[in-house]
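Retro notes
What went well: the complex prediction finally ran end to end.
Inputs used:
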Amino acid sequence: MSAPANDSQDYVGFDTITQQMERKFLKRGFNFNVILVGESGMGKSTLVNSIFSSHLVDSQGRRTAQEVIRKTTEISPVTQTLEENGVRVRLTIIDTPGFGDQCNNEGCWVPVIKYIKDQHAAYLERELKPQRDRVINDTRVHACLYFLNPGSRGLRPLDVEVLKRLTEVTNVIPVIAKSDSMTVEERTAFKRRIKEELVFHRIAVYPYPSEEDCDEDRALNSSIRDLVPFAVVGSEEIIDVNGTPVRGRRHGWGVINIFDETHSDFVHLRNFMLRTHLSDLIEVTSQRHYEQFRTSQLRQIKELRAQQAAAAASGGIMGSMPQQVPPQVPAVHQPMA
Amino acid sequence: MKEGSGEEQNVAPSVYSHVSRPGSHRYKSAKKGLPFNVMLVGESGLGRTTFLNTLCERVVIPPREAGNCEQAHIAEPMQFKHYTVDMEEDGMKIVLNIIDTPGFGDGIDNENCFTRIQEYIEMQYDNVLAEENRIKRNTKFTDTRIHALLYFITPTGHSLREIDVELMRRLGSRINIIPVIGRSDSLTPRELVLFKQRVMNDISANGIPIFNFPNSDDDEDEESVEENAELRAMLPFAVVGCEEVINEEGRPVRVRKYPWGVVQVDNDEHSDFDRLRYVLLNSHIADLRDRTQNGLYELYRTEKLSGTNIIAGTAAATNPAAVAPTAAATGSPVVQPPMVPQSHPVAA
């Protein structure tokens, strides 16, 4: 690593830390975990494959009559390593086939919330081990793409229930994936309506306003919040438009180019998720959601120990000193209904 | 429609003559329109309202008010909303009675929607059954039996969802179900073809009864048979509805405008809307009515009468004058309903 050209003896050189960190980072790579929540047929797989420009996940939708209709929400994680310019990411996409697909969808969110909390719990458990790994494999969910139904007038009852719970445990980004059946007016009205309803129900979607933000960040976040929910169109197909290859959809009345900003918010979503807010998504997961989980878990453990101590003290002979309770995080952690 | 024996409207109908059952009267088209009762079922956002408004070429169901945010999480129970529209199609007057079902499938738990719709359909049959069994019948009886149920499927691109299968399976033997793909402009032509195939495979694999344009017994002419085959191949009908009309080369055209192009609702290449409209209001209106009255109703009637203990009406009509005053009692005696249900031929 060549030192900066400044040879003056007053030059300290701590500004090279960014390069030192980058080297470490390049060697280690990083994890990025995204969960997809939405009914089947909303375009989840296609969108994710479009965002990462590769066929990462297969659609889990029911294609043939022989396939049985799912009765519950399944959790289906797929991990792949992608590399770009020497930077490696271990990307895990968690699909949730069966979510919202039944006649009675009561509780269909429970496996999803449980999975997210389980990852926090697993991380906490490893953190609390007397002998910790140098680098804990981070399986915590950094982002949740929540798929809204185009055509609904606003949030549906199921959306409200699920979003309230999801936003408490992870960064939620609401999207409309098959927005090519909405006219521009319909899209605008829908977005406005969704934003109103989110505010009314106090559902906090990502990005969160934060005091640390400088003016530039605030402006960027504000413009992103304006776009929510992202009205996108995904496609794994390259079609020919007057000789130019275009990633899009060919209808009988026109061709959609998913990168065209007048056609869809796809570019904005991808830039937001990967080019401007990727590290923030990871950091906020750790600093906000994981911390909340950790605090509540440790409090529970403390209370449990206090109860046991009290029981032992009042129990007299039978109660000896309560044995050191190892942080059995998974046991204490109850999936929230 | 089968040729009747030319009975006038105000004859006290005999139970045995199937043409003169309540509701199957031949209406003089000059005065009244032919009643046609259609139910629309589908989750909100699939275009039921727009479809109806487009069909009638006027705003029958006004766009739903945005309402306030507090309502969003409250799942309104499904309602049955009635609308009546006078239509004229090819010189034939039709009184279109629509029953919309806003709230279907919109809640978290939608299990009871099916039962409620089934009860509603059967209630109309019960009304007819009760009317038939009356000693003194009402010749102005309004037949509210539903002739067709348009079921709107979400354009997922996959196969049927549980709610689709359940609805069609439970109601298919009570009512003519015509499956329709709502918002079909979200699918590309290729996706649409595949989706239609998948849906129809699902329907036949699960043994779901739908109205699949059966050839009735006296359809001997090749043209009808061919037409039915063609329509069968189009199922489920892909509809796009819209209420915006623009002027194209002097003609009013109904369109949906996107940044990448304009969908023309009446263009057969863009949607099956026109064909479906023709089926409902013109080519198959008689078939749908006939199958309801002479097939599905009879099936229900048989099931109901054999399943329950119906004791024949006690008082025989002794005084013909006591029977409907307007009855021109031209020798057709009022007969008590038989204790043993007649087995009427069920139309295909």
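What we learned: The beta strands of chain A are 30-37, 76-84, 87-95, 143-147, 172-176, 230-231, 238-241, 244-251, 254-257.
What to try next: split runs per interface for comparison.
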